[in-house]
Design goal:
two-stranded antiparallel ribbon, 2 domains, single chain, three-stranded parallel sheet, about 35% helix, alpha/beta
């Protein structure tokens, strides 16, 4: 069985990846490594953030490491906005949505 490290602390995400990959892989996520600091996701795309996470974890751990960034894009804000799951981004999104005027 091949061990694979998922650069996330989201156990639901880890479980979903495990279901996709099946029993040939033993997955561990960052909940098993509390000594690894929170990774700053300041890339300009989902792909950049995934790379940042994978590279940061690979500097701390050896082995196969994968990462993703699943955020959301909100077209209603007038431009293509990438919003990560971080609380600051959610608060900023809420402020922008509050400022939108409902259409008549």
């Amino acid at each position: 069985m091949q061990q694979l490290i998922v650069a996330t602390r989201n156990r639901n995400k880890t479980r979903e990846i495990q279901q996709i990959l099946g029993p040939k892989f033993e997955l561990r996520d960052l909940t098993a490594y509390p000594e690894i600091s929170e990774i700053v996701e300041n890339g300009n795309s989902f792909e950049e953030n995934a790379k940042l996470k994978a590279i940061a974890v690979s500097k701390e751990l050896s082995g196969l490491i994968i990462a993703d960034d699943s955020g959301l894009e909100v077209a209603a804000l007038g431009v293509k906005n990438r919003i990560s799951h971080r609380a600051q981004a959610i608060h900023a999104l809420a402020a922008k949505l509050t400022a939108l005027k409902p259409s008549d």
